[in-house]
Amino acid sequence: MIVFPAEYNARKEAVFKALAEVEGASRRLTAIPLNFHDFPETAARVAEALARAKRQPKGPVARWLKRQLLRGQYNWARRHFTKHPDQIALAWNGLTGSRMCFLQGARDAGAPTLYAELAPLPGRITLDPAGVNAEGSVPQGPDFYRQWAITHDTTSWRAIGAGLTARASRRADVGQAGGALPDTPFLFCPLQVPDDSQVTLFAGWCGGMDGFLAALAQAAAHLPAGWHLRLKEHPSAKIPLTAALAPLLATGRAVLDNGTDSFAQIAASRGVVTLNSSMGLQSFFHDKPVITLGRAFFTLPGLANHAPNQPSLNALFTTPDRQGFDADLRAAFLHWLGTAYYPAFTAPEGQPAQYDRDAFAAKLAQARAQARARAEPLPPRPPLR
Fold first, then answer.
1. Nearest CA to 253 among 275, 277, 273, 280?
2. Residue 251 CB burial class (10 angstroms; 0-12, 13-18, ≥19)
3. Which biological processes are named by the entry's GO terms (predicted)?
4. What is the model's pLDDT at position 381?
């Protein structure tokens, strides 16, 4: 059986329904139940989930109430999955707040967990027992993918990106139109939603969107003559970044283009710079060098160039035309993602979801296998010499 908090979103619920069909039994929680009998780990788990909560409570009373909610949810999940360790705890994203407490309670009880999220590749979905984005189980050693390329034909890797299109905009001032782009060289920066967990949790040394834009303002001054930085706000961002972008645009080395199609801007660019946006990964299909500042699962040597601090970012901007990548490694990486990591899943509006049943079953089995592995005692230490 899978157990999951309800999501009032058709695509998310379609993913859960597909998993339930494969598993054969499910329990949908309209609200995560509460229990106020604590475990030794309760306080620490609640503190971490509260610190990560997307909506931070305002004032001491609201903060206390939020803490009690998370406390009750963690305790309930811990007790429920202690009684039912064979059930799989499933949640969407699961990196913050209530869903984090729910999954952590299940994990601490020794039960399997499964995190669900959108995928950066078309026609696929993320299902990972360990987490999503930078906390997922994507191997972080280039040798893994080089070995994959030895045993698999990766020549079809470009087909994995077939159908990639720019996200439809929710804002009137952000579009995906055609139009001429300048012949002068530029780096393209597709901005992310400022309060998305990718930004709030994995921004690294930048600290968040404001720090990221400040870092770009410093780095832009190091671009060669004739180059500029081209930016576009995220089409799903509810709040414009007008004020935050002002210092960067005032340098005269940056341009905001919210109207032109995002992938057209990638294609015309000489490279892409991002915290950890999925568009950084998608730029691989356009054979563009990528610079990352935050934590991203695709920031491996040979795939992208990581800037761990301001001086290294400035140095990368000084020589934007010398940034490269390992094309064979990228081919192997994308082939593995598309054929072994992200299960096929589509949910056309008004139609039943289409998904790879075997791949979904494999993800459920992987969740159970990882739970068993966590429960196995460590081997004894060798005797001291």
1. 273
2. middle
3. polysaccharide biosynthetic process; polysaccharide transport
4. 52
The string of DSSP codes covering 6-75 is ---SHHHHHHHHHHHHHHS-EEEESS--------TTHHHHHHHHHHH-SSPPPSHHHHHHHHHHHHHHHH
Bridge-partner residues for 88, per DSSP?
2
Residue 384 has a pLDDT of: 46
Q: What is the pLDDT of residue 6?
A: 98
**What is the C-alpha to C-alpha distance for residues 244 and 216, in angstroms, rounded to an integer?**
12
Contact predicate 78/105, CB 8 Å = yes
CATH 3.40.50.2000 placement within the chain: 142-337
What gap in Å lies between CA 41 and CA 35, rounded to an integer? 14
As given in the structure block, the two tokens for residue 371 are 């739970």
CB atoms within 10 A of CB 108: 18
Please tell me the pTM assigned to this model.
0.94
- Residue pair 332/155 in contact (Cβ under 8 Å)? The answer is no
Q: What architecture is the 142-337 domain classified under in CATH?
A: 3-Layer(aba) Sandwich (3.40)
